[in-house]
Amino acid sequence: MVRTLLFDDQGEMWDANSPLLAESLCASLFGEDLLKYVVRNLGFVAVTENNGSLRLRLRPSIVSQTALSGVLYWLHDQTIERVMISLLDRDWTHELVRTREGAARRLLAHVKVNLEDRRGDFLNQPRPLHALERSSPLRGLLDAWSDCDGKYDAERLRPVIEKAVNGRFVLVEASPSSPGLFIKDVGGGLTNTGKYWLSRSIGLRVEDQPDYAYGKWVAAPYRQVLNTGEPNLEDVDAVITWPGNPRRSYRYRRLVVPFNSTPDSTLLLGVTLVDPNIDLRVKPRQEPS
After folding, report:
1. What pLDDT score was predicted for residue 180?
2. Cα–chain-centroid distance for residue 263?
3. Which among 50, 46, 93, 89 is positioned nearest to 70, based on CA atoms?
4. How far apart are CA 100 and CA 106, in angstroms?
5. pLDDT at 282
6. Whole-angstrom Cα distance, residue 8 to residue 66?
7. 66, 47, 44, 65: which is closest to 56 by C-alpha?
8. Does the global pTM surpass 0.90?
9. Which residues touch 179 (CB under 8 Å, ≥6 apart)?
């Protein structure tokens, strides 16, 4: 069975032949003509399925990051034998990969994300560890980290995480053999949207989140902890775009601590405490009356 899907700039998935798609775009084109138009001009991604094989068509210079994220997370749930990636620059070029993980890596390698376009979306403010109040739930996590003597003890830490931050955590693994930071586990206390997408990120890089610009930005504190071997505490005020959802503000305090997992890997545990009082946005000055 052959079918073609389109992922739009909101991360929504459409049947390429759906009359509702043409109607929503107020388009006079249909079928293959409409598909070519939206890939070339609107940054959509087309996916054709054919008995376990996929063909992805996109234009890297204008592809919507949200459309690409929708494709990446759709791929997560697919059983595939091979993927043909077709890229439009001046002409079409084609690349064959054998796994969905390989397809994800190649897609992200071809599509460049300009963080300057999202500069105002991701704000953080470092906080000194000694300023962490004794009453703060994160203080219990920091003490538990100290007591573990650098060893990740899941049985000991999980109850502390559940009590302190209601299971809001991301566990990241780093290895000297790879430059990537890979998501190893995700807690169940995240928002429904975050949990849905991040649970599908297990095994992928921190950067490979549905909002790729946010993932690329949020990888920085994990790399800092990996490089220094010291915990990192900061306030975060971020605007995140999940596929199929409007832009949304998230405000939280995050603590990242390192653990020695094996001689060849390091685990980085990031826990977050939601705090709507955090506001790192610059307020406009009042005009004199």
Report:
1. 83
2. 28
3. 46
4. 10
5. 66
6. 8
7. 47
8. no
9. none
For the segment 155-174, what is each residue's pLDDT rounded down to a tens digit?
888 888 888 888 889 999 99
For the chain, the domains span: 2-112, 119-274
**Which residue in 208, 190, 274 sits closest to 235, CA to CA?**
274
* d(C-alpha 280, C-alpha 250), whole Å: 11
d(CA 160, CA 39): 48
The residue length of the chain stands at 289
- pLDDT tens-digit readout, 223-248: 999 999 999 999 999 998 776 677 78
CATH class of 119-274: alpha beta
> Quick one: how far is CA 157 from the chain centroid?
25
Per-residue burial over 91-120, b if 16 or more Cβ lie within 10 Å, else e, is eeeeeebeebeebbbbbbebbebeeeebee
Find the DSSP H helices in the chain.
19-24, 31-41, 65-76, 100-110, 137-147, 154-165, 192-198, 212-228
Those residues whose C-beta lies under 8 Å from the C-beta of residue 284, and which sit 6 or more positions away, are none
Check the CA dihedral 104-107-112-113 and report its sign.
negative
258 vs 227: CA distance, rounded Å: 10
